Amino acid sequence: MITREFNIQSMVRDNIITLKPYASARDEFAGQSEHMVFMDANENPFNSIVNRYPDPKQTELRVRISQLKNVSPSQIILGNGSDELLDLLFRAFCNPGKDHVITLPPTYGMYEVLAQINDIEVVSIELDSDFEPQVSKILENQNESSKLLFLCSPNNPTANNFNTNTIETLILNFNGIVVIDEAYIDFSKRESWLNRLDEFPNLIVLQTFSKAYGMAGIRLGMCFASETVISILNSIKLPYNINVLTQMKALDRLSKTEIIQTEIKRIIEQREWLKIELDAIPWITIVYPSDTNFLLIKVDNANKRYTELISKGIVVRNRTSQPGCDNCLRITVGTAIENLKLIKTLKTIS
Ligand SMILES: *Cc1c(COP(=O)(O)O)cnc(C)c1O
């Protein structure tokens, strides 16, 4: 089934290849938990739910996610938000001061920030006027120092999915690892690339609990890749990166997936309602199609409209300084009541 040969090991930084990972107390012994007397980790013995260190491998949670996503638990690593997982990718694969990554603006800002923190150059190839990747330009700009290509699909802030053939061409022809950030996939009609993970050894898929799953506050991101990639990332992640409360809350939420599905359905319905209403406002010139839980709109004067909305108690995101997003605002879909308030407010300003 593998459609591409790829040597992952050759992409890994030398210091990571030779790394001897920290073995935590709970790592060394993971047995029949409840019945054992734990005197190995210098914890306070009095039970308070959180007195013990968390499971460093998050086994129960990863098994649950694996059932949900139909991916083996050995192909999953969890992070303190997707942001931690993105940072791990830089630390595993990108040599500071030497390698570069490719991003496709306008897109999620963290790719560039994390690149800067890790002293990695960013090669930016703007999306075309349809907000699609410029494949030939991307491939012309790659060389042996190109380590990661970030494809955010559906993309933030443009709200569209990239063309499936375009993404496939990039995975098949990019020298390095292609990271597809699917933070908004649950709001999309499109199938997740998780279903094709086993075809491409250089593919990494990121998802998150922060958007559709309604848990931005617990900080939990998911990374899916080949077993080889996951074991490299496991060797460098901090031992107890997902705390006890986060693991508990996530498991609880995943025991009620119908609720998540109902909320997603309501958000999508509201998005479609909002789109129609926004289209009728004269100073909104474009409401872009959306496969996400937000709408990107083009207005007559983004700075002016942004300030007016703030003064009326509504905060949206001003994206006007982003490439290709002149006079654009990004509006997250709220509850029916919030959306109605937004539309009523917009109608009062001319
Ligand atoms: C919101 C968002 C995330 C989520 O990041 P977390 O750290 O998991 O909260 C990731 N990628 C994109 C493109 C996003 O918009």
Topology pattern, helix = H, strand = E: HHHEHEHEHEHEEEHHHEEHEEH
**What's the total count of β strands?**
11
User: What is the tally of helical segments?
Assistant: 12
- Based on secondary structure, the structural category is alpha/beta
Topology (elements, then pairings):
Layout (H helix, E strand, L loop, with lengths): L13 H4 L7 H4 L30 H11 L6 E4 L2 H12 L6 E4 L6 H8 L3 E4 L10 H6 L5 E7 L11 H10 L3 E5 L21 E6 L12 E4 L2 H10 L7 H11 L2 H23 L4 E4 L6 E6 L2 H10 L5 E2 L9 E5 L3 H13 L2
Parallel strand pairs: 2-3, 2-4, 4-5, 5-6
Antiparallel strand pairs: 1-7, 6-7, 8-9, 9-11, 10-11
Helix pairs in contact: 3-9, 4-5, 10-12
Pyridoxal-5'-phosphate (PLP) binds next to helix 4.
Task: Write a compact overview of the structure shown.
The protein has about 350 residues and is α/β, with parallel strands linked by helices. About 35% of the residues lie in helices and about 15% in strands.
